[in-house]
Amino acid sequence: MSTLYDKIWRNHVVSSLGSSEDESTPSLIFIDRHLVHEVSSPQAFEALWSAKRVVRRPDCTLATADHNVPTTPRTGDVTTDTYVQDPTSRAQLTALEKNMRRSGIPYYGLRDDRQGFILPGTVCVCGDSHTSTFGIGTSEVEHVLATQTLRIRKSQNMRITIDGELGLGVTSKDVILHIISTIGTAGGTGFVVEYAGSVVRGLSMEARMTMCNMSIEAGARAGLVAPDETTFAYLRSTSWQHAEEFWKTLKTDVDAKFDREVFIRAEDVLPTVTWGTSPQDNVPISASVPDPSSFESPQRREAAVQSLKYMGLTAGTLMEDITIDKVFIGSCTNSRIEDLRIAASIITALGPDAKVANGVVAMVVPGSGKQEGLDVLFRRAGFDWREAGCSMCIGLNPDHLDAKERCASTSNRNFRDRQGTGGRTHLVSPAMAVAAALKGRLTDVRKLVGASACYPNSRASNNSETQSAPIRQTRQFVSVRGIAVPLHMENVDTDMLFPAQWLKTITRSGLGDCLFNRFRVDQSLAKRPTFILNREPYTKAKIMICTGHNFGCGSSREHAVWSLFGDIFFNNCFQNDECLKLAEYASTGADMEVDLDKEEIRCIESGLTVAFKTNPTNRNRLLRGTDDIEDALAEADKISEYEAMRRQKWPWLELDISRARRRVVGNPLEW
Ligand SMILES: CC(C)[C@H](C(=O)O)[C@@H](O)C(=O)O
Ligand code: SF4
């Protein structure tokens, strides 16, 4: 008996050191589709070219520019040079274009409205955490480019079943926010989650995508929904007949066992809004800002106090009494055409007088070039309609929040400074975002229009001591000795570790100063004396002991790892009493040694020794300093065998690369 994930996994194993189902042994997995973008790929290509390697399967790869692109109109004779003013953004886009030309990978540029690259049952990766199967780091991007495979361990199986009937005005965004608050931002760590139940079966493809997309906010490796009639209708093609027969087998067997099961009653899900700086900090719109003392764990209480301070909120304030300055309808979570239709239906239901409240700036950044005339409707209601891109979800382009500006946002991350330094984000569904824009405060969309306008639309309509050397995968690591810095923080996300503004680099080195930058310096760039990394002796720390759980959650930006490795060795193996003892010792500022060979941490002055266990394969690689890509290329015959089998068994997965490239001719923003 197998789960959907077990079946997909088995279909993609190229070679396995042990049993392919063994979660402790990594297997070489074939990647059907690889999406490349400007932020996480430059360093991967640089390493690929310098190793004189080529892209194995340009036909299974596709590039888009999204994170850095301005959202102002792209009409007229524009080129990347003239359109993108910011030099660092421009450098990343130019690097992408150059790398695409050299590799032959099709590039869907800034004015391209084509869609449809992913099919049921495929393994699709991208150097971006919001890839539902699944997000990878830059070193892995390089690995996939060179080998079309990844060496990974199988995750555990989790099923989340949502049964019943969703209430009016409740959308899939509310469901996923509810799930995240139920299981926590680390609840899905180590799992691939399958969403099931009558609610999911009844959702449209777009609504399912919103849920799968935000699985990473619950820490999950991937989010899946079994393909069904809704999926087949969405693909809208008759040429999939054989494929459909196969796709119908892609479902969990009745008696399959999950490592974890969660059940949610649809009636318990209400229009939801976040109040804090983690996606799990959410409540129904009818509730009030929670009192930090209501949380059981001391860490969660402290996190809530800090979040409320940052958010400028007082416990007990009704969520509906919170006024906002900006509204952002966009991001990979909620800017699909269906999201825009739902948002537009609220405006339509209220009639021609529906206008964005005075003083509120509301922008719509569609996920693609599809408009269906909705742009006119939004503009008439006072919204600013922009071109596609990540935009204010991450603020790498000119769209951002100023300090203390409060925003109702349909994006996925309400981390500190995420949408701009000091900006305050409340995550909501598209329907709730429109309600907030029209009222100028967080608003229960159900009260506004009886909300029948929105819900039905979301249903289916049918060694590391050498500080200066650049980080390469081939670096050996045996042990590190030095001062350890204790860090008592929960949920340290990668936006905290490595703020987005520094992501616009095309190299891997010199990133040490970016680490915890917003904690290290204030707005005038003066060092904050209270932050531990600014205090002696920790300015020279080489090891970090983090006692809070869920370290490194959020984005898959490998820059966070490069910045850590540049300065200090990060170890996240312990979250128990031993970790607290190590942190206590670290607070004396004495030397500590992390020995990977012996798998122990030694506190030099006190004599305390703590043993730890790491995955044997990874340990050996680090000790030997071997190159993962070289290892995978040694199995080139097996990869070729797999490719031949794939061509024969699943012919619909082969793409016509010349067709994909055809559109690039004649468009100045294309190659
Ligand atoms: C830049 C990219 C690596 C990052 C991610 O992985 O999520 C970004 O998309 C984000 O949302 O923070
Ligand atoms: S989460 Fe935001 S920044 Fe990241 S890929 Fe999605 S839209 Fe872009």
UniProtKB/TrEMBL annotation:
Residues in coiled coil: none
UniProt entry tagged with the keyword Repressor: no
Span of domain Aconitase/3-isopropylmalate dehydratase large subunit alpha/beta/alpha: 6-440
Cited SUPFAM superfamilies: Aconitase iron-sulfur domain, LeuD/IlvD-like
Gene3D superfamilies: Aconitase, domain 3, Aconitase, domain 4
The keyword Cytoplasm appears for this protein: no
This enzyme's EC code(s): 4.2.1.33
Cofactors required: [4Fe-4S] cluster
Molecular function in Gene Ontology: 3-isopropylmalate dehydratase activity; 4 iron, 4 sulfur cluster binding; metal ion binding
Organism this protein belongs to: Gymnopus androsaceus JB14
Keywords: 4Fe-4S, Amino-acid biosynthesis, Branched-chain amino acid biosynthesis, Iron, Iron-sulfur, Leucine biosynthesis, Lyase, Metal-binding
Catalytic activity: (2R,3S)-3-isopropylmalate = (2S)-2-isopropylmalate
Protein name in the entry: 3-isopropylmalate dehydratase
Function: Catalyzes the isomerization between 2-isopropylmalate and 3-isopropylmalate, via the formation of 2-isopropylmaleate.
InterPro entries named among the record's database cross-references: 3-IsopropMal_deHydase_lsu, Acnase/IPM_dHydase_lsu_aba_1/3, Acoase/IPM_deHydtase_lsu_aba, Aconitase/3IPM_dehydase_swvl, Aconitase_4Fe-4S_BS, Aconitase_4Fe-4S_dom, AconitaseA/IPMdHydase_ssu_swvl, IPM_dehydratase_rel_enz
Pfam families in the cross-refs: Aconitase, Aconitase_C
